[in-house]
Input
Amino acid sequence: MDEQEEVLADLKAAGVLAGLQWARRSAYQRTWRDYDPETGHDQTTVGTVGHKLMCDRLDRVFSCGKYAVESAEQADAGLDVVAAGISGAEFRSMPRIPPGTVARADLTGSPGWRLGRWRWLLASTKAGEVKYLRWKSPTKRRAASQPYPGQLPLEIPPGLEDIFRLISGDASQSDDTTTLVVAHGIDLDFGLPEFYLGRPKIRQRRRTAWHWCANILEDDGGSGQGPRRGGIPDPRTPERLADIGVPDAPVRLRTKDIRENSAQNEG
Output
C-alpha cells in the first residue's frame, strides 16, 4: 500500500473523507448561490468566500473551533449551534463524526486539521490549475519541502542550511506528522467543482506541484483513483463531464448576451 492509498483508507475508515466531502458540498453550494458577477464578484471573491466557508464547515462536521465539544452527549446537546446558518438539508446530510476524531492542527497561522499522523491544510484553486499550483506562502512551501519516501535528499548549497531548515520546518516539526493539502475550487463558467487531496512538493519548471494528488469529489466515490488513471483531469472537458455524470451545468445569461440575442432575432 503506497502513501496515497494509506491516506485514503485511513480517512475513509474514520468517516473523515465523508466529512471533507460534506464540507465542500455545503460551502460551495452557498458560495455558488451567492455568486453574482454583475455586482462585482470575481475569482478572488469566490476563492475567499469558499475558503472561509470550508474552514467553517470543517469545524462543524469535526466538532472543532467554536463547535468544539468534549463528548458525544455534548455534541447532541449542541446540535442547534451546529445547524445555525446552514439549510435544513445541509444539516440533515452532515455526517455524524464522534468528537475528538479530528483535531485542529494549524500550521504557522494556516488553518489545519489532523487525523492521526495526517494533517491537511486548505488551498483555493482556479479551475484546471490544480496540477501546477504554486506554493507561495512559507507555510505551504514548508509542507511541500517535507521529505517524501523514496525521494533523493536535496543537495543544499553551502551557507543556506539555516534558510532551508526554516522553510522545511525541520527545526520545529519533530513528530511524525505528514502535512497534506486539500485543494478546492469551482469553474465560474459552468459551476463545476474541483476537490483534491494530495502531498505537495516544490514545483520545478513545467512539472506538477504534487508527489501524488487524488480526486476526492463524491462523484468519484472518494476513491481517488480518477487522477491515478490518467493524470489530474480538467473538469471542463466533455470526457470529464461524462465520467462523473454531472447534470447539465447552469448557464448564467449576461445582460449583454440577452441584448445581442434579441437584436439578432429581430433582425
